[in-house]
Amino acid sequence: MSENKKGTAVFLLILLALIWGTSFILIKQGLKVFSPAEVGSLRVAAASIFLLPFALLRWRELKQGDHLKLFLSGMMGIFIPAFLFALAQTRLQSSVTGILNTLSPIWAVVMGVLFFHQRFRGFAILGLLISFGGAIILALARADGAIGGFNGYALLVVLACALYGTNVNYLKYKVEGLGSLTVTSVSLLLIWPFALVYLFGFTDFTSKLVEQPGAWQAAGFIVILALMSTAVANLIFNKLLQISSPLFAASVTYVMPIVSVMWGVLDGEKLFLGHFIGMAAILGGVYLANRK
């Protein structure tokens, strides 16, 4: 990577961390009124609308087979994780969810080795074990700081991270010749009908919007989430992926926990010793896996 590209990549990484690190507190605000399914589907539908003009203009760039690739990428990297994170945060603090999301680079390594013929270094194996140990500690950490029963909702975040790790490799090695704006906008366009039909056909979104106090404000937070954390952030991420490696791009999660924890503390969330131990283990493992 040239020095110019390296500087651009670092800048995009920090910008992306700030945007995505804020997404967890926005999800939390949306969940005060809407169900996880409503939050996820509104997030995807609104993001699709924002980038719809670009998708229609870029549609002609697609070759045979690109439509299916971008649909699969949209499902793995946007649609399914949007629902998983919303559901997880019904039982997890936003700050803890942000910390668990640091497992994405580990999954980028694992999926790269399993399906995309990347080499598995010794430090990556050690980092993998340490990070998963940290994830288990976080899943066992209760709100009062003690270690108690396993919180299965943490596994939803782990699954979302696995999808992210698969998607970054898939985009890097299977989707070629398309710009970041094309990839992001068309992926959203292809998954848009599923989100739209589900939101208005199978949820109480419209009735809540009319009848429930605070619904418009909560919807506003989700729309901000859609614009910044889904539309703009995925555009930045795909650009970052094109000028760097999948593991470097996934390492945006180094900085994200700082942002998510900051927002969580400002919103009254508390972190205890178990949380900090789990966070330190995950970040340490990610660092080892990302060593040259």
Describe the structure in your own words.
The protein is mostly helical. The protein has one domain. Helices cover 77% and strands 0% of the residues. The protein has helices spanning 3-30, 36-58, 66-88, 94-100, 104-115, 122-140, 153-174, 180-201, 205-211, 215-243, 246-250, 256-266, 273-289. The longest helix has 29 residues, at 215-243. The protein is globular and about 55 Å long. The relative contact order is 0.24. The model has no long low-confidence stretch (mean pLDDT 85).
List its traits.
77% helix; globular
List the helices and strands and how they pair.
Layout lengths: L2 H28 L5 H23 L7 H23 L5 H7 L3 H12 L6 H19 L12 H22 L5 H22 L3 H7 L3 H29 L2 H5 L5 H11 L6 H17 L3
Helix pairs in contact: 1-4, 1-10, 1-12, 2-3, 2-8, 2-10, 3-7, 3-8, 4-12, 5-7, 6-13, 8-10
Brief synopsis:
The chain is an all-alpha fold and 292 residues long. Helix content is 77%, strand content 0%.
**How many domains would you count in the coordinates?**
1
Euclidean distance between termini CA atoms: 14 Å
Give the overall shape, derived from the CA principal axes: globular
Order of helices and strands: HHHHHHHHHHHHH
Radius of gyration, taken over Cα atoms and rounded to an integer in Å: 18 Å
Would you tell me the structural class of the helices and strands?
mainly alpha
Q: How much of the polypeptide forms β-strand, as a percent range?
A: under 5%
Mean pLDDT: 85
Q: What's the total helix number? A: 13
What is the count of β-strands? 0
- Detail the poorly predicted runs: none
Percent helix range: over 70%
Q: Tell me about the largest β-sheet.
A: none
